[in-house]
């Protein structure tokens, strides 16, 4: 699928989804969200895809937000529908059975910061800038930024960022735990693929169950979270990967998962 605003590439088990509207700094209009939605379905359905990387085209922006020109004259009902649609697409990323890495290559503002936060792991280039500038436009984050930012970095810093609308650089994003790695822009995709390869060398079923346990656990109390973990842990013991992983350990060899 090579659509206009979202490009889907596959490379050795890794799907690379690129938001491709460089003239608008990859701003998310409705059409782009729809194409992203389809690209995610494609990544989920393709058995060869083990890990997904989401990035932006060009050297300036990951995604500079939802498309302000498109939002400008929306009615409250249209705004609600747009917000709910964006939330559902980003939720699809979060609940994808495969790990998703955000390779943040520049501005990640508003909907762009929200897109990165729906991904499992965020790696950013040195020039990346993060922020939720919505209050400067007379609106609030609408693609789950008010929900995910405090869950990731805590309420005090999240409120500071959302109330001031200020941008932070990648060093600050790393310091507050919004991203897990900073790399040179020229190395961003290679470093993301390297991480993807390391993840792919492990049991994909186990990773998928771990993702579900972490995500569901973050949405509930610890006792319920522990119940979820024990269920997923037990499920691992119904898989070939568990047998292979433990046999390989006993036999002092590298496991071959996904047989
Ligand atoms: N939407 C539409 N177009 C954009 C956007 C955007 N978010 N960001 C940049 N562009 C366009 C500019 O209009 C410009 O187009 P043109 O060349 O035709 O004038 C082009 O991209 C290049 O941008 P700049 O000339 O502004 O580039 P600079 O290097 O001077 O500045 C910035 C870069 C700082 C990133 C600047 O472009 C900027 O501030 N952009 C807007 C950032 C922003 O406010 N983002 C948040 C948007 S709101 C949002 O995301 C809410 C999400 C939830 C929505 C819920 C639905 C109701």
TrEMBL record:
Gene3D superfamilies named in the record:
2-enoyl-CoA Hydratase, Chain A, domain 1, Lyase 2-enoyl-coa Hydratase, Chain A, domain 2
Cleaved signal peptide residues: none
Q: What Gene Ontology terms describe what this protein does at the molecular function level? A: enoyl-CoA hydratase activity
User: Any idea of its EC number?
Assistant: 4.2.1.17
Q: Has the keyword Cytoplasm been applied to this entry?
A: no
Highest taxon of source: Bacteria
Q: What class of enzyme is it?
A: lyase
**Record keywords, A-Z:** Lyase
Aminoacyl-tRNA synthetase keyword on record: no
UniProt family annotation: Belongs to the enoyl-CoA hydratase/isomerase family.
Q: What is this protein called?
A: Enoyl-CoA hydratase
Query: In which organism is this protein found?
Result: Thermoanaerobacterium butyriciformans
